[in-house]
Design a protein that fits this description.
This protein is 29% helix and 25% strand. With 338 residues, the protein is α/β, with parallel strands linked by helices. Bound molecules: zinc ion (ZN).
């Protein structure tokens, strides 16, 4: 098969690889229907996160099951399936508590920008659709694998509730789908913090009621102005930098919640800055597996159209252009089709 390898800074290649095969009897092999480039793929692509050796890339996937190991029971060849970037057994205490991305047997699935993929713990990790979906639903179904599930977790962790105010820091694909998630959860006022016209428009399409282009202290002041000096009930932090985290904490009201899902890079929080504002913080790698059945239903029933975050579609063999376009912010998110 052919797959994507990151060799070093801004050096992505699509090349011949060994076909994945069943290693454990709980594995499945899937033929990828669609994959994509994640904002988090840009950290190693830009050389900010070092890689020790040439590294296979991609952790968002959906496809058709080709083969399963001898102990796989619920997942069958021929099914269309979606899984998370962490394989999980979906039975251990952490999984049962809804934290499948902390599963006692978790394994990272990091080789999805390829023609075929091995998925460990197939019964726990994969969710099959009732029948093969129509082509037009595939982009939206693919988002449930990570980018939508992560935006959803940001909203859950930020304790978004009906009638409340949610602020979203970050206008990448996760932030935009955080807006969609907050809308689904009934937030009355949803403020997208964005300074890019195309992203502002998509945020409004997904349910944002207000746009704030200012950042940092100016952005915080705008949010305070808009909420009679109170601050937001919920803030979704979808970037992962020091500035975005402090902006998120600053926007929350006393007793408010910040859900943070941006992979932290150099974030350091001073104890007093956390102590005095009375802000709840919760975040981490999203337990996407917990949300998959519900999110897949919302897509199949036409309630949401998260696939609109893909503003670039490329054949999988042009994956390098997908990285370039996202790195240069020419594209919000690149969809890859084998
Ligand atoms: Zn588990």
């Amino acid at each position: 098969m052919r797959g994507t390898i990151l060799y070093g800074e801004r050096d992505v290649r699509f090349e011949a690889r060994d076909d994945p095969r069943i290693v454990q009897p709980t594995d499945a092999i899937i033929k990828i229907s669609a994959a994509c480039v994640c904002g988090s793929d840009l950290w190693p692509y830009r050389g900010i996160q070092e890689i020790a050796e040439p590294t296979p890339m991609g952790h968002e996937y959906c496809g058709i099951v080709e083969e399963v190991g001898g102990e796989v029971q619920s997942i069958k060849p021929g099914q269309f399936v979606i899984g998370s970037f962490f394989a999980s057994d979906n039975t251990c205490p952490h999984c049962q508590a809804g934290y499948q991305s902390s599963c006692q047997h978790k394994e990272f699935v990091g080789d999805a920008q390829a023609e075929y993929l091995r998925v460990p713990l197939a019964d726990g990790t994969l969710v099959a659709t009732p029948e093969a979906p129509s082509e037009d639903l595939i982009p939206s179904l693919l988002t449930t694998s990570d980018v939508l599930g992560t935006g959803w977790f940001a909203a859950v962790a930020a304790n978004v509730k009906p009638g409340k105010t949610a602020v979203v820091v970050g206008d990448g694909a996760v932030g935009l789908l955080g807006v969609l998630s907050a809308k689904q959860m009934g937030a009355e006022r949803i403020v997208a913090m964005s300074r890019h016209a195309s992203r502002q428009k998509l945020a409004r399409d997904f349910g944002a009621t207000d746009i704030v282009p200012e950042r940092g202290d100016e952005g915080i002041a705008r949010i305070k102005d808009m909420t009679d000096g109170i601050g937001a009930d919920s803030v979704l932090e979808c970037v992962g930098t020091q500035e975005s985290m402090m902006q998120a904490i600053g926007c929350a009201r006393p007793g408010g919640s910040v859900g943070y899902v941006g992979m932290p890079h150099g974030v350091e929080i001073n104890g007093e800055e956390l102590f005095f504002p009375h802000v709840r913080l919760h975040g981490g790698p999203a337990p996407v597996r917990d949300y998959l059945p519900n999110l897949i239903d919302l897509v199949l029933n036409g309630k949401i159209n998260p696939g609109k975050v893909f503003d670039l579609t490329l054949p999988l063999d042009q994956v390098a252009e997908g990285y370039r376009a996202m790195d240069e912010r020419r594209a919000i998110k690149a969809l890859l089709r084998p």
